[in-house]
């Protein structure tokens, strides 16, 4: 029964990083599977897996996050289980593993009301989230410890290009010629995990360093309920969980993680069609460009059979999984010359 | 066609404040209606109305907000229109009118992509939100300027009770005896507005100082998409908007503002039944106490006829409206001896 899968984000990967990233993703699954076999619960396994991804300088979360316009690292993360327990952190600095902070918030909620009947917080952001980490024994660090040399280099390059572009724009007002900041030099988006534990409870999580040069304080889908991750145990005892990656503001508007599962459950719709309905063709995104996203979905039937499926409108999506055996990893790619944000590719594995 | 309605929160009001609060709510509607008659758009009218509520020391938003555990004022606010434009701020300090900041974020999005193809932020929190306000001409203030003498008194009383309770709990572990902090001495929750402008576009907004003694950085429903406010223009050209007030964490989990409108549109369901389905009887809140909330809904038919309806499980909900005439205000109340969080009351007006 225990099963874990992770993704390193939906985007466009640098070829030279892929081998190591695959290895990082398999390691994340290995670590989580050890925990799952020990009987740990789904949220702990997700936290272990995503922590491993956060600790890799190659992923855009935790250590190695994209930098803000001010040159700081600010992270979003969230976690959910099929019982409906959820916690998130947004724009938090100086916390080594943002997913650990989200997990601790989740655990704290399970203790019930605080003194004077206060309801434990579900979403914490910024300095207050950092302060809560200190008070609750979640490891904190110097905010600069999350900044890698490579992230700094990319930041300086982006800032320089921004200055050139802004100067040009001041004289030419040529907004139409704007180039995207998230090109090949940029980090990919939100990483995440979907999981079912030995007790048969499903869950999901996400973690993100956000977009390069974002304004400080900006929260993307990884910090917002229903948008970055989703999990639900249905009344027929089937369960579904998802973890979404992509352009944060669009994933919030479409509540992609939740809505794609609603389209899939109990309906004879492919994940590709569900992705088109809920995201690419969603009227709420009419007029938006760069509709780049990807979703990893775990579906467990009442009998316990497991299906892992994925879909993305980005060039690449890197996935690894462990079904109580050896971890495997693979890259899903759009067909050659297909336009990201318009075309999609999808796949599935059954266990 | 232009119509504006506001609420001063769903909760339990101090009798001595009610007269002035009603006057504040009518003034908010008056100000917005002047703007609406001048042809201003729905989001501007909402901002004018909610700013008037924020400026009153009697409401739990802007000036007079409940204080955090650290004694600071941190505000959430969001705004949405029927076209799907949305912006929110969370846990922001030192901004005189948080709704003005949310509105400015909304306007900023309409300018399209920023240089280098960056997507304008939709959700900003904490210091980053304050910084964005400064950079974009949104009036800021000394963080202490939002703290009223009364809020400070309530804070000191709550802190003292918390210390006593925590000491007692340390010795007796009597969690069952915990008293609620949001008793008669506490401020009520999120205020908000629903509106349709002269051009026939609907919208909604909310603003909140959050719960007394909340952890710094905590974001409640007023800062989260779909949870505090919602507005949508449907394909049959009917439009619906809502503004929700109550226990933030529960309103986020149920996405109350959005979900109650989904239950109402195209279905022969009363607002009271819709509230039970989406909130009180929602399985996601199984085991939760204090299910206190209220929602104000504006429904405009394809022919332009307007229905304003409301429902709450709190003792009171204070509402005012202006249908292009003189502003009117009223208090909706649970029947005597009905238990808040379990029983509801509802009503509607047609125009």
Automatic annotation (TrEMBL), chains A, B:
One Pfam family named in its UniProt record: Asparaginase_2
Active-site residues, Swiss-Prot/TrEMBL:
190 (nucleophile)
| An annotated GO cellular component | cytoplasm
One GO-annotated biological process of the protein: protein maturation
Q: Which Gene3D superfamilies match?
A: (Glycosyl)asparaginase (3.60.20.30)
Top-rank taxon: Eukaryota
SUPFAM superfamilies associated with the record: N-terminal nucleophile aminohydrolases (Ntn hydrolases)
At which residues is there a site annotated Cleavage? 189-190
Q: Which GO terms describe its molecular function?
A: threonine-type endopeptidase activity
Family affiliation: Belongs to the Ntn-hydrolase family.
Q: What is this protein called?
A: Threonine aspartase 1
The protein's organism comes out as Amphimedon queenslandica (Sponge)
């Amino acid at each position: 029964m225990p099963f874990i899968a992770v993704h390193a984000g939906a985007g466009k990967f640098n070829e030279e990083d892929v081998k190591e990233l695959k290895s990082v993703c398999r390691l994340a699954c290995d670590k989580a599977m050890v925990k799952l076999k020990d009987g740990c619960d789904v949220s702990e396994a997700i936290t272990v897996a995503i922590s491993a991804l956060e600790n890799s300088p190659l992923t855009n979360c935790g250590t190695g996050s994209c930098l803000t316009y001010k040159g700081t690292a600010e992270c979003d993360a969230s976690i959910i289980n099929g019982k409906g327990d959820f916690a998130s952190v947004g724009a938090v600095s100086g916390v080594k593993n943002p997913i650990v902070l989200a997990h601790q918030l989740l655990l704290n909620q399970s203790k019930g009301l605080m003194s004077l009947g206060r309801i434990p917080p579900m979403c914490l952001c910024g300095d207050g989230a950092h302060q809560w980490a200190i008070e609750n024994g979640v490891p904190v660090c110097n905010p600069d410890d999350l900044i890698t040399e490579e992230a700094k280099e990319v930041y300086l390059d982006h800032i320089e290009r921004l200055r050139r572009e802004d100067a040009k724009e001041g004289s030419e007002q040529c907004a139409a010629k704007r180039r995207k900041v998230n090109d090949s030099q940029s980090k990919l988006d939100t990483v995440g995990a979907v999981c079912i534990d030995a007790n048969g409870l499903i869950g999901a999580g996400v973690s993100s360093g956000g977009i390069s040069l974002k304004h400080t304080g900006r929260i993307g889908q990884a910090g917002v309920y229903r948008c970055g991750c989703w999990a639900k145990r249905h009344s027929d005892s089937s369960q579904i969980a998802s973890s979404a990656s992509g352009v944060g503001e669009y994933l919030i508007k479409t509540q992609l993680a939740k809505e794609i599962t609603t389209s899939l459950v109990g309906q004879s719709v492919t994940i590709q069609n569900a992705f088109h309905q809920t995201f690419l063709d969603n009227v709420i995104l009419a007029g938006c460009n760069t509709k780049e996203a990807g979703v990893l979905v775990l579906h467990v039937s009442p009998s316990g059979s497991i299906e892992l499926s994925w879909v993305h409108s980005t060039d690449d999506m890197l996935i690894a999984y462990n079904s109580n055996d050896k971890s495997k990893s693979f890259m899903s790619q759009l067909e050659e010359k297909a336009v990201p944000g318009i075309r999609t590719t999808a796949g599935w594995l059954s266990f």
